[in-house]
Structure formats: structure tokens, C-alpha cells
Amino acid sequence: MARRMGHISPTSSSYRHNRLLLGCLSSSEGRQPGKSPRFSVNWSAGDGELEVLDTSTGRRKGSGTPSRLCKRSLFTRWERLHHQLRRPGQVLGDEKAIKTYCGAKMTAGAYQRAKQKFVLSLQEAGLGIWNRKPPEQEHFQSNV
């Protein structure tokens, strides 16, 4: 997908298309897939340790707690940052709307405009339509 989208221009100055440096095919020859591992590992700069997930549940191996990459965890981090950036008495957007993940995404004007342009670019390039998830998956609140 990343290679097919190379000719699509960036959606806005706030967003950019990063070219992946890994995950490219080493050969164009077809191969028989083996059995996938039952675990997945993720990490990023600033994380204290690797996170090992059970691929059948998406939860951490051992503890069974949700991944730090799940929508709720990422939204909770975003909401904490949102509150830290706010000055006393300042209102950043529709406070009631941004209490839910869906509301926060809908009130993010730059994000919505970039997403609309991206979806249109996919269609114009003949790459098909953007699949949407069921709306109920985005109607949840953070843990803050």
C-alpha cells in the first residue's frame, strides 16, 4: 500500500506521508506463509520496555491488560496532554464533545480536512474507498 500511494501528495502541511524503511519485499516470488507467531512486540523511544502482546487477544502477555497502543490508551494519553496544554480558564474546543474519542476526532478540524483530502486522493488514484469501522467502536470515554 505504501508504494502504491507514493504519487499522492501530502494532505496538508500538518500531515505528511512517511515512507516506510522496513517491511518491503526482498523478492517478488510468491511464498507459502508459515504459521504466524502467537505474539507481537512493540516499542518506541521513551518506553521503558518492550510490550509483548498475545496476537489472538491484542492484550499484554502475562497480565492480560490492554496494549498501550489500543485506542483507549492512546486517547487517555491525548486527553492528559490536552489538559496539560490548557491554561487556567481556557476552553480548548467543545469540552463536552471531546470527552469521547469520537467527539474529539470530530472536533479536530485540521484532522477532518486532512482525512477528507486523503480519502478523496485514494479514490482519484483508483485505489478504492477507505473502509470505515463501525461507529460504536469510537464511542467511549478515556480513563482520565
TrEMBL record:
GO cellular component terms, semicolon-separated: cytoplasm; nucleolus
InterPro entries on file: A_deamin
Residue ranges occupied by any A to I editase domain in the UniProt entry: 15-140
Single GO term (MF): double-stranded RNA adenosine deaminase activity
PANTHER family on file: DOUBLE-STRANDED RNA-SPECIFIC EDITASE B2, EUKARYOTE SPECIFIC DSRNA BINDING PROTEIN
Example GO BP: RNA processing
Domain of life: Eukaryota
The name this protein goes by in its record: A to I editase domain-containing protein
